[in-house]
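Justification of resources, computational component.

The compute hours requested in this renewal are based largely on the per-chain cost of generating structure records like the one below. Each record pairs the submitted sequence with a full structure-token output. That output is archived, and it is also reused by downstream analysis tasks.
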Amino acid sequence: MTDRSSGAGEPLAIESLRRRYLERGELPERGVATPVLRSWERCLRLGLELGERARPSNTTRGDLMVARERNAELLNHAGGVMEHLYEQIRASGSMVLLADASGLILHGIGDPAFVDRASRVALQPGASWSECQRGTNAIGATLIERAPVEVFGAEHYLECNGVLTCSAAPILDCRGELLGALDISGDQRNHQPHTLGLARMGVRLVERRMFESEHARHAIFAFHARPEGVGGLQEGLLAVDADGEIVAADRQARMLLGVERTHALRLGAFGNLFRSSFGTVIGRAARDPGALIELELRSGARVYARVRVSPAWHVGLQAAQPASRMARAAPDPSRSARARVTLETLATGDAGLQFALDRCARIIGRNIPVLIQGESGSGKELLARACHNSGPRADGPFVAVNCAAIPETLIESELFGYVGGAFTGARKEGASGRIQQAHGGTLFLDEIGDMPLAMQARLLRVLQERCVQPVGASEPVAVDVTLLCATHRVLSESVKAGRFREDLYYRVNGLTVQLPPLRARSDLRVLVRRLIDGSANHPEPARVEVDAAAMAILEAYAWPGNIRQLQNVLEVALALLDEDEARILPIHLPDEVVHGADSAPVERRAASLQPAPAGAVPAAPVRGRRPKDLDDATIRATLERFDGNLSAAARHLGVARNTLYRRMGCDF
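The structure output for this chain reads:
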């Protein structure tokens, strides 16, 4: 990639290199990444002019709707990941974008000020960012290169796009086919070196979610060449059916096995790939679900695997079992019912939260709209689901709509639906809107404060008349929904500013419930326990404890991202634990949490972590330490501090775990 710290990384230098290359054929010796050079050459062959504006894509609203419907599964799995990525870059003048395999942007979320600037160069849903339309850019290049690409400032072929810095990675399905691209774009003046890594991490999460969803009825073998790699983002995934047939391998699995596409991998019987029998491995996994199993490939290489099965696996397994064994394998039918969140299960002992829960409980079933207010990440949708599951409509649909995430050009058809032929590109059979889909159940309008004014007027009519008129329809359709709304904005202030209709405000504001931010709650320890117990990033989450020093840091931190941020921190901490570890320590927490905690408590904790004797262990891990610089006393003190846990001691000392093994064998 380009060295952003060198002179060649400066916009004027890059622009000069680009012009010399395109006008004189002078190939830059440094300063421009190879994928960018290849893209410049393709753009030159296409006849694009440096100073021209982007070529029109002729994409209509109907085209975008059809593309979103065609890529519905991708959108469903990518939406949550995009929100997670956006939390990492919030307030940095950036946005996260999802494009399909042709380069058409399907969805975007970002800082409002930058989103407005990006729209001036058509960096928005409905616009095509293929190379033939927009010249060199990260989305177009990554779709052609099938590899992560970063395009910085003047590296964009069209000069009008030089204000951007874009980092994108391709999304592939389990067969190695291209699905689209995930991109993080921002102001080129605010370029961050980790952005491409974030995009790649996001793609890995999307691909994993899609793989696990598609193969929910299969056993998932998560494996890696190293034991510590299992459970992390670098593990490979194999899907195996109840008959022991390998049916799919994800991208990471193909890379670990040295093949590019699934069809190049010898699928078929489990024994074709591994020397162990499928029955033996499944039997061991059944006895010890969290076991890390060592497997030998037919090639002689060894990998470590953990087997994950969902309740749906048992359904497929029953088809391959004798009738006498089916009763034993049947899943517990009440499991999902017990796991449903209700107002009762949300109670954690915090007085502010309990006040909100009690108010909701009093009006459930009375056809009174509820407006949930609270900061981003404070659990507004979770409370809405609890209200739905606790009321008389619990068996009906719960339809959640994020009003801030739907492009303004699509929100009308998304909410109200449309009839066949209502606009260019509309499906022949039409489509029901989200309001109709909620008939008989609950409609949850999240971030209603961001709904465009024109749509607010139409929503008001629906709430008044209890009927909805799809786009292009001549007759309204009756709907019966319970309405729940949520926003992080103060709607009364939005009404005064003219951004929200006053009549709609009084219509949705039947009961206002204020969720307290996490920093104001007294139940953080209970939340930590519940979030850990519900995690899939550790084989035995119930066994995991939080060290007293780590808990003190968590309690001192202000949590601007609230429960969502706390969950992310704990998920990462669990993923960092090795198989033999069951205690979250301060070293497993991100620096921003450790250093962002209240200064006085942090100082006291730091002092308490310092051993008194000379030669004590440093309070923070030392990165890049050479093994020969470690003396025996330091190693012994570190091992004693971490109760003999080699993995934790190695991380703290900044050396590999194998180094400690060797030193223990040689010196102790």
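DSSP finds 30 helices and 22 strands in the chain. Residues 1-9, 314-339, 599-626 have pLDDT under 50 and may be disordered.
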